[in-house]
Amino acid sequence: MWRVAARSLRRTGAWRWQKRLPRPGPGSLCCSPMQTPGAVAARGLSSTAPTVRFSPAARSLFDEPLAIAVQGLSPRQQVTLRTSLQDETGELFEACARYQVEDDGELDLARCPALPGGSFSGLEPMGLLWALQPQKPFWRLVKRDVRTPLRLLLEVFEGHGPPPGRLLAQAEHERVFLRDGVQRVPVREGRIRATLFLPPGNGPFPGIIDIYGTGGGLPEYRACLLASYGFAVLALAYYGYEDLPKDMKEFHLEYFEEAINYMLQHRQVKGPGIGLLGISKGGDLCLSMASFLKGITATALINGSVANVGAVLRYKDVTIPPLGINASRVKFNESGVADIIDVLNNPLEGPDRRSFIPLEKAECRFLFIVGQDDRNWKSEFFAVEGSKRLQAHGKAKPEIICYPGAGHYIEPPFFPMCAASMHLLVGRPVVWGGEPKAHCEAQVDAWQQIRAFFHKHLAGTLSGISNKL
């Protein structure tokens, strides 16, 4: 199955990656210190001042839609709304939008379109979240500690500035990652360095191993959110963490086999097989695991490669070299940011054919999530060639879902699109591709597709438990 997702996914030209909101400073719509959560008026105003209303009221899961409204405004009043949050390093992300209040004095983002001149325009109930952009160039929003929330500050200003008008109201809302009842279990067994997330309720649960890309470390936020839907999810580190290898030179599948066996033997994990979820470099690692190792029932790749990239891969007496590169094919834009989409060699030609992962050996179902504006590498080409190879060997046709306007980092819903950031292997900022609105819509749909895929092939159902707190 190969299709293009068509749920309002379209390219938008309003934002390019170079556009950023102004840094905080005199006269700009900048972030002020965060206040106590809840619906509050600005300090110094009377009790009849406008108030911000969130639904859910004080906290919500990060992948959950958040309804925003402002009450007590004047009919047809012009206001500017600004959201801001700080990541765990203290870096600031901001978005703003201009509105005209309805005749009843209420501004409901589900009914009122944003006017031109802000971070986005049109009817975008979640725009003030997906349009958040870093004030530090080439910075990506990543959640390191899932036990703590990200605190979103919403401010309401009079008029459309700049400079900003009078502050009318402000409120704070917590976006959390660890749902009530989800267990977080650090795993240090044998060589495994990982964190297991178990959903609330009585198991066993369908099991998934979640693997990220070249950033290394132990990202937990996707696994944590996925566990809210009834899966036992193991976030697995494979380099750049504790006593694991410090860099990407050589990987041994025996390490990943140990993680698979850990999951299959866990009393809270439902057999007979588990699922694999990988993005970028994590995608081709998942593909190699499915091709050489037992116990895999379903594998989902997000902008993954069907060739081994970046490091030598070994399993017993098998060695797969990394796909060759040609650095002369790197392009640079006027800001010096690298475009590396043409750097990798073609895994169908010459000696580079040895890097093509023998996915025809796999005994599982595949889902390829593809951002058609991925500038890291040619994800759609990889998915199509993987499908051809599977079918040529009599295997089931994989499901391929393509998203126009989506870039490389397709994350859980409402993560701001990262259009350009530092690439550890390249050693400088690279462009990842994507248009903010189309990318956000892709993340929402892909998250649903991934969950449905795993529920179908691991649990025999099409839906999971509610993710609400």
Low-confidence stretches: 6-39, 42-47, 463-469
Radius of gyration: 23 Å
SS elements, strand count? 26
What is the approximate shape? globular
Ends distance:
34 Å
Share in β-strands: 25-35%
Global mean pLDDT: 90
Helix content: 10-25%
In this structure, how is the largest beta sheet organized? 9 strands, mixed
Describe the protein.
This protein is α/β, with parallel strands linked by helices. It is built from six helices and 26 strands. The strands form six sheets. The chain has a nine-stranded mixed beta sheet with strand order 1-24-23-18-17-14-15-13-12, with helices on both faces. The longest helix is centred in the last third of the chain and has 24 residues, at 436-459. It is globular, with a radius of gyration of 23 Å. The relative contact order is 0.14. Residues 6-39, 42-47 and 463-469 have low confidence and may be disordered.
Task: Describe the secondary-structure layout.
Elements: E1 2-4, E2 38-41, E3 51-55, E4 59-61, E5 67-71, E6 78-86, E7 92-100, E8 107-108, H1 127-130, E9 133-134, E10 150-158, E11 167-176, E12 183-187, E13 194-198, E14 205-211, H2 221-227, E15 232-236, E16 250-252, H3 253-265, E17 269-279, H4 281-292, E18 296-302, E19 312-315, E20 318-320, E21 331-332, E22 338-339, E23 365-371, H5 379-392, E24 399-403, E25 420-423, E26 428-431, H6 436-459
Parallel strand pairs: 1-24, 4-11, 14-15, 14-17, 16-19, 17-18, 18-23, 23-24
Antiparallel strand pairs: 2-11, 3-5, 5-8, 6-7, 6-10, 7-9, 10-11, 12-13, 13-15, 19-20, 21-22, 25-26
